[in-house]
Amino acid sequence: MDPFFILDEVSYCYPGARRSGVCQVNLKLKPGEFLAVLGANGSGKSTLARLCCGLLKPTSGQVLVDGRSTTRETEQRYIFQQVGMVFQHPDHQFVATTVEREIAFGLENRALSSAEIKKAVAEGLVRFQLDGLRLADPHQLSGGEKRLLSLAAIWVLKPKLILLDEPLSMLDAGSAQMIKDLIEELRKAGQSIIWFTHQMEEVLSADQALVIAEGKAVWTGPPRALLQHLEAVRSWGLALPPVTELAWELGLNPDITSRNELVSALWNSN
């Protein structure tokens, strides 16, 4: 299967170099694939996310979506329909005064019929457990509800690729688990996903991982394989799963990511 999404030697430099850019990053994503982009705060991963959806244009190299470059003005409308981004701070993407209107906003910009919009909004409200909040102000929702709304507003547009920038940041454990479960369901349904985070625990189920440090790609491979390189992981500023940290401190196999695995390893070590 040919890649649907490609970064080809992509670099981006901010004017005045006040923020970390990215330098010659390469990646390929096939339809239905789940890619994790791991990097510490300030590593350049949020810049890379904006390059991936076309909000930023590369200084050199190219971002290709279904063979179309984000640098071509004539291709932008098509690319924005194929790639949806869920920002780290949901408030930054809200534009409407109610939950219902927020979900409808992107659909209205696609010139769909009122019946099609109404049906899609209803599906989004139910799918993301927001039906009881349809008339609520998006900015007054809880952190978990805001994240659900930001996902719903993208999901109803049916993009081929969803970009998630730190989707679990500032959420309580219950809300974070609910979001993880929903994203896992989307993945199983064949949705292409790129998840940007510094928390390894969030993306251990990804098909592949790309580690960014100081704007450069420093490692690629299955995410669990990173557990065999703990010194490097720490030097890159990534957060290991807490259970893995504990196993390492106890001198056990670092390839441990759950309590059950830790209990089993402790039992077998005695």
Structural description of this entry:
The protein is of the alpha/beta class. It has one domain (5-239): P-loop containing nucleotide triphosphate hydrolases (Rossmann fold, 3-Layer(aba) Sandwich), CATH 3.40.50. 34% of the residues lie in helices and 21% in strands. The protein has 9 helices and 10 strands. It has helices spanning 45-52, 76-82, 99-108, 114-127, 143-155, 173-188, 230-235, 242-249, 259-269; strands at 5-12, 22-29, 34-39, 60-65, 68-69, 83-86, 161-165, 192-197, 208-213, 216-221. The strands form 2 sheets. The protein has a 6-stranded mixed beta sheet with strand order 6-7-8-3-9-10, sandwiched between helices. α3 (99-108) crosses α4. It starts with a strand and ends with a helix. The model has no long low-confidence stretch (mean pLDDT 90).
